[in-house]
Write a structure and sequence with these properties.
259 residues; alpha/beta; Rossmann fold; eight-stranded mixed beta sheet; 36% helix; binds adenosine-5'-triphosphate; binds magnesium ion; P-loop_NTPase; CobQ/CobB/MinD/ParA nucleotide binding domain-containing protein
Length: 259
């Protein structure tokens, strides 16, 4: 079982778009895939078709201490075969800004760890747990950022190539390594105007996705771009396949094998 966290400092860089396509790609390859949706807007849950995105017993309300249990949804993807993804939607929070109502890092960390342990002890042990978050920074939400990083094995940083974006990546990697070693990092550069150009911060796992109006159009319709077999989306599909293969390898290196 591999836990994979998606983070970005800026909103709207494509975390949810990429994580829903990734979850789909993993499920279609036969992996038992779970998604913990920590965005109060529940975008990933809705796009994937979770059946109870507005239930109170969710991942975020559990972290807040409002809910004592979580409800698990199942989304089905039909692509020749039927594959399924288990989703824990955020839950409906009684407060306007749930991120402002979170407890300390240590309380968050112990709740997150019991949530992940609970999922891990599920009768059919998952292969992958993906975690979607809203835009988050150590400066604004230090407790949550720390709790998330300390409970996950792979951190996936999503950024664009706008000026100033790269400094954030370097700082985040340093922040993560200060929390503890033994973590893999993946950087996804999304909405790029060109595929050329390197990234000089010593990270080997870099995946690039071009800015593409076909992606945007599919997303606006509530579709998962990975499932659309349009030649205009082939670069996107290849990037998701590359990300999937990378996570398969990281999971295999940790000895846990395919179902
Ligand atoms: N490669 C791309 N090309 C064109 N549009 C894109 C691309 N990636 C993402 N988008 C668009 O960017 C918007 C934001 O995407 P998404 O909701 O996945 O971002 P996010 O990082 O999850 O945002 P938030 O932090 O608000 O949750 C969507 O309208 C999506 O269609
Ligand atoms: Mg999002």
């Amino acid at each position: 079982m591999l836990t994979v966290l998606f983070l970005s400092q800026k909103g709207g860089v494509g975390k949810t778009l990429i994580i829903t396509s990734l979850a789909t790609a993993l499920a279609m390859r036969g992996y038992r895939t779970w998604l913990i949706d920590l965005d109060p807007n529940a975008t990933a849950s809705k796009v994937l078709g979770a059946n109870n995105p507005s239930n109170v017993n969710g991942s975020l309300t559990y972290l807040m201490g409002v809910a004592r249990t979580v409800k698990v949804s199942t989304a089905f993807i039909e692509d020749g075969n039927i594959s399924s993804i288990r989703i824990i939607p955020p839950g409906t929070s009684p407060v306007a800004n749930p991120y402002g109502a979170l407890p300390s890092a240590s309380v968050l960390s112990s709740r997150l760890s019991s949530l992940i342990r609970g999922i891990g002890s599920y009768r059919a042990r998952p292969n992958f747990i993906l975690i979607d978050t809203p835009a988050l920074s150590p400066a604004l939400s230090p407790g949550l950022t720390t709790a998330l990083i300390s409970n996950t094995e792979v951190i996936t940083l999503v950024a664009t190539d706008e000026p100033g974006g790269m400094g954030w990546l370097g700082n985040m990697l340093e922040y993560a390594s200060a929390i503890g070693p033994g973590r893999e990092s993946i950087i996804i550069l999304n909405r790029l105007s060109s595929i050329k150009g390197g990234l000089d911060i010593g990270v080997k796992n870099v995946i690039k996705i071009l800015r593409n109006s076909a992606i945007e159009a599919a997303w606006r319709l509530g579709s998962i771009p990975y499932l659309i077999k349009d030649p205009g989306l082939s670069q996107f599909r290849r990037a998701i396949d590359e990300l999937t293969a990378l996570l398969e390898r990281l999971n295999a290196e940790r000895v846990w094998a395919r179902p």
